[in-house]
Amino acid sequence: MEFFLISMLNGISYGLLLFMLSSGLTIIFSMMGVLNFAHASFYMIGAYFAYQISTYIGFWPALALAPLLVGAVGMAIERYGLRTVHKYGHVAELLFTFGLYYLIEESVHLIWGRASVPYKIPPLLDGAAFTLFSTDYPMYRVFMMAVSVSMLVGIYLTLTRSRIGLVIQAALSHPQTVETLGHNVPRVFMLVFGGGSALAGLAGVIGGNAFITEPNMAAAVGPIVFVVVVVGGMGSLAGAFIASLLIGVMQTFSVALDYSFVDLFSRFGVTLGRDTPLAALWDITISQTAPVLPYLLMVLILIFRPKGIMGTREG
Fold this sequence. Notes:
With about 325 residues, this protein is an all-alpha fold. The protein contains 14 helices and two strands; from the N terminus they run H-H-H-H-E-E-H-H-H-H-H-H-H-H-H-H. It has helices spanning about 1-30, 40-55, 60-85, 90-110, 140-160, 165-175, 175-180, 185-210, 215-230, 235-255, 260-265, 280, 285-290, 295-305, and strands at about 130, 135-140. The chain starts with a helix and ends in an 11-residue tail after the last helix.
């Protein structure tokens, strides 16, 4: 029971971090139709900005300032780069963001080097929140979950209850009408891109010190983010939330399960030896397949439900 509850909590906290990261990409795609290949790079620079700010004035100011700086970078990229190539279609946008990913990565190498930086958990949150059976559960994990849930509520209220949210949704479906009413649609899209980038930056702020802040962190989480968006459904925030939790829990449990088909068959009295056909395959443990499972899930989703769990838009 202890293993199950602790693994479930870890899976939920990791899944909520994935949702925080993927929600920005989902919003950008649903509002603008742009599939941002460099989205995980904003997660990385959010972590580095937070590290640099926390070095001078502490973690709590960094928690507020770093996402705003990342959002400003995102708005500048949309205004002076992405908007220019938008008229050439989705392929040009994808190639632009592909090049942007490498540009940001090399910039991080030049400024902060190729080694990891000592971005640490603040002392106030570096302890146990509670004890479950014999395990002390980290307070910072609880903090991560609280920030993620708060962000989810904030996104929902902004898009459904605020004036700017109504303008954003109207600009998506009826841009000419919105312009007639006096709203600057390109500026709205710039704010959307900046907001999505800021959400990725916020994920970097709270995820960079929980895991590790180094130049390969964008490459490590980038593919998983796209898996979440595809599994949940392109453009669906609710789908991204479900897929994030599903993948987070699945990976957390699979990493900790050191069982193979050999163990499974042995429970039924069947022994698989080295002479058994495909013996090496049967000996692979669940923990060894953990990195592959999200991509296997994505392939199955694309085969049986191409629009994803809750997707309505095809791209």
